[in-house]
Amino acid sequence: MSQTAVYHTTVQWKGEHRGRLVMGNGPEMDFSAPPDAHGLEGVFTPEDAYVAAANTCVMMMFLWATERFKIKLLSYECRTEGTKRIELDRTEIFTRLHFRPVIRVAADGDKPEVVEARVRRALQSAQKYSLVANSVKSEIVIEPEIFVEE
Amino acid sequence: MSEYLETTIDKFVFRVATDRLFSVDGVWVQRQANGVRVGLTDYLQQRNGDVAFAHVKPVGAKLAVGDEFAEIETIKANASLFSPVSGTVLEVNAALALSPEIINEAPYDKGWLAVIEAADWHREQATLLTPEAYLSALRSQAEQELSGS
Fold first, then answer.
1. Most B-contacting residue of A58, A121, A134 (CB-CB within 10 A), to test interface
2. What is the DSSP secondary structure assignment for residue B4, as one 8-state letter?
3. Contact state of A64 with B145 under an 8 Å Cβ cutoff
4. Which of A57, A106, A109, A148 could be disulfide-bonded to A130 (CB atoms 3.0-4.6 Å)?
5. In chain B, whose CA is at the least distance from the CA of A71?
6. Is B70 left (phi over 0), alpha (psi -120 to 50) or beta?
C-alpha cells in the first residue's frame, strides 16, 4: 500500500510583513510572523500553523480512533504548546510539541478503568497514525486528563 | 522461546517464528498436546494496524478449513481470519477481551487467538507453509503492495 497524495497551499505577498494564504481545502486568511519576530498582531503565523497542524491532526485521528475503539466521546479539548529553540547559529527549531487533551467519555456500561485504558490506547493510536505527528521531528508528549462518566 | 527468520522490506522488519507452520494468508499454526494453537503472523498484524477488538469463535465452534474463525477490528480495518485446519475450538485467549493490543505486541506468544482440536492434522499440515516458504510468500505479498500491483 505504497500510495501517495498531494496537498497544497498558496501564499502571496501583500506588502510589508503580511501575506495572504489560500488553503487547498478552501479557506483563505492573512498571515504574518509573530509579533516577537517582527510580525503583526492578530493574524495567523507559521508558528500557529505548525502547532495547529499537529493539534488538529491528532484530534481528527483521535475522533477516528474513538469510533474504531467504540468509545462514546462526550467532549475533547486540547491545548498544545510547541517549544521553539534558538540554536547557537541563530537557526530555530521546534523541539517539542506538548499536548494536554482533556477528554470526557461515557462508561456506557463498561468499568471506568476498562474505558480509560481503551481511551489511552486510542490516543496512542491517534499519535501513531496522525499524518502530521508522524511527519514532524519534534518530540511529542501527550499528557491526557481522562474523565469517565458513569 | 521461539527463534525467528527476519526480513526487512522498505522500512519494516517482519519476523517469522521458526517453530510453527503457516497459512499463506498469515495465520500461524503450532502443534500442542491437545490440538493446534493459532494466531496472526507479525506481518499480518503490522499490515492491519493497532488492534481495537478481537472476536474469536467460541469454544465448541466447529470449523472447516477456510471457515472464518476470528475477526479483528483495528484502527484501520476489519479483517476476517480463516481457519487453516478443520476441527473444534477448544480454547480462546481470554486476555484478548481486555488487552487486544497483545496481538500487536506479541503476535507469536501472548497474542495467540485460539486452540483448535484439529480433526485431520496429519493430512492438513501438509497444506501449510514452512517458515521459509511463508517468509518467501510474505515478501512477495509485501513487494506487490509496495509496487501497487
1. A121
2. E
3. no
4. A57
5. B52
6. beta
Give me the mean pLDDT over the A140-150 stretch.
Answer: 97
| DSSP tag of B50 | S
| Residue type present at position B113 | L
pLDDT higher than 90, residue A46: yes
pLDDT per residue over B60-91, tens digit each?
999 999 999 999 999 999 999 999 999 999 99
Q: To which residue does cell 492438513 refer?
A: B124
Q: Is the pLDDT of residue A42 over 60?
A: yes
Percent of chain B with pLDDT over 90: 93
Task: Encode pLDDT of B16-33 as tens digits.
Answer: 999 999 999 999 999 998
| Bridge partners (DSSP) listed for residue A80 | A99
Residues A75, A79, A83, CA angle at the centre, nearest 5°? 160
CA pair distance A44, A53, nearest whole angstrom: 12
Which residues in chain A touch residue B148, judged by CB atoms under 8 angstroms apart?
A: 2-3
- For residue A118, give how far its alpha carbon lies from the nearest alpha carbon of chain B (Å): 8
The three cell numbers of residue B143 are: 513487494
Beta strands in chain B (DSSP E): 4-9, 12-17, 21-22, 27-32, 35-40, 51-56, 62-63, 68-74, 78-82, 87-92, 114-118
Which chain A residues are within 8 Å of B53, Cβ to Cβ? Answer: 69-70
Whole-angstrom distance, CA of residue A69 vs CA of residue B26: 24
Distance CA B54, CA B73 (A): 6
List the end-to-end C-alpha distance of chain A, in Å, as a whole number.
41
Distance (Å, whole) CA A36 – CA A107:
45
How far apart, in Å, are the Cα atoms of A6 and each of A24, A29, A128, B76? 10, 21, 20, 21
Long-range contact set of residues A26-29: C-beta below 8 Å, sequence gap at least 24: none
